[in-house]
Design goal:
Length: about 240
């Protein structure tokens, strides 16, 4: 395997599958199967999941919610998703723990770097819920922060799109995909890989990012094996 330890960022919206809202059992089982296969190779796996399939704080603010309260609701949504993925992983025979950035035992253990590393080194998949525990920070920022903290070799951003393009491939049929791109070029081209706070955290700490399509079964394993799918963002 190309990587020893990874931080996998999963989109909350992807977990809803073809639904308008909530959780798709089919998507959860697909993700759990891919993660099980990856864990079986000995790769240590940390995971951060968004909450947009349940509630997104920024959207709530536009509907009249206080932004801080809205972001706190979004944090709770990420924990619902974390528990759902933990359940799917355990159903597939994978040891998994949910650590939360907000104290809420017995739902999950309170996150610390030392606790996360202890579980990772024992072969347990660690799902870190609750974002950064602070409003105004996205789950992309949480993924970047946790990836740096657990000393991951790479941040794998699993999305519905198979990489980084010159433009939105769903809107522009002439959009071209990058196999590799530097952090500086992403800034220069104003490409939307993740929000700037998260992106800058990765750049400043040398955490490479691979953007790939997680919804195609087997793709996680292909990325871990070093196959050139998706887009690598590096210094």
């Amino acid at each position: 395997m190309k990587y020893r330890r990874i931080l996998l960022k999963l989109s909350g919206e992807s977990l809803q599958g073809s639904r308008q809202y909530g959780l798709s059992t089919e998507v959860l089982q697909s993700y759990a199967g891919q993660i099980r296969a990856a864990a079986a190779t000995g790769v240590e796996i940390g995971i951060v999941i968004g909450g947009g399939n349940i509630f997104r704080g920024l959207t709530g603010a536009k509907r009249g919610f206080d932004r801080v309260k809205g972001d706190q609701m979004g944090m709770l949504a990420t924990i619902v998703n974390s528990l759902a993925l933990q359940s799917a992983l355990e159903d597939n025979g994978v040891k998994a723990k949910v650590l939360t950035s907000i104290r809420m035992e017995p739902i999950g253990e309170y996150y610390s770097k030392s606790k996360a590393l202890e579980y990772l080194e024992s072969g347990t998949v660690v799902i870190i819920g609750g974002g950064t525990s602070n409003p105004y920070f996205s789950t992309d920022s949480a993924a970047a922060l946790r990836g740096i903290e657990i000393e991951a070799d790479v941040l794998l951003k699993g999305t519905r799109v198979d990489g980084v393009y010159t433009a939105d491939p769903e809107k522009d049929p002439h959009a071209a995909k990058f196999a590799e791109i530097t952090f500086d070029e992403v800034y220069a081209r104003n490409l939307k890989v993740m929000d700037l706070t998260a992106f800058t955290l990765c750049k400043e700490n040398g955490l490479e990012i691979v953007v790939f399509d997680m919804d195609t079964p087997g793709n996680l394993g292909r990325v871990l094996a070093g196959e050139p799918i998706g887009t690598l963002v590096k210094r």
